[in-house]
Amino acid sequence: MNATTPAVQLTFAALNFDCADPAVLADFWGKVLGRPAGPGSVEGDWAVGATEPELGPRMVFHPVAEPKTVNNVRPILLTDHYEDEIARVTGLGAKPLSETKLPQARYTTFTDPEGNDFDLVHWHG
Question: How many structural domains are present in the chain?
């Protein structure tokens, strides 16, 4: 780092999702990730906690009156148990959209209960 570049003083704390029903969506993601879900620090919000950095940032679900028409954030979940996790997240309410097979990876794109996309990925190369 040179003398003119300031030191980074930021920490990635959370991903915020606008949604119609924060409690339902937090419950879904809490179950998917095996993490606790509960009321957020702002009234009306719900959150999925992350107590250890390797679990990733917290997920915060914020109620909005009108749903978004564009989804710009897509979580990517890695697994070594691809088929088992497909069955599990589908059983929790995820809907598969498409599957892609590449030479070194296989992934399925899903939507959560409010239509937000996410990918389940298995690297095998």
Answer: 2
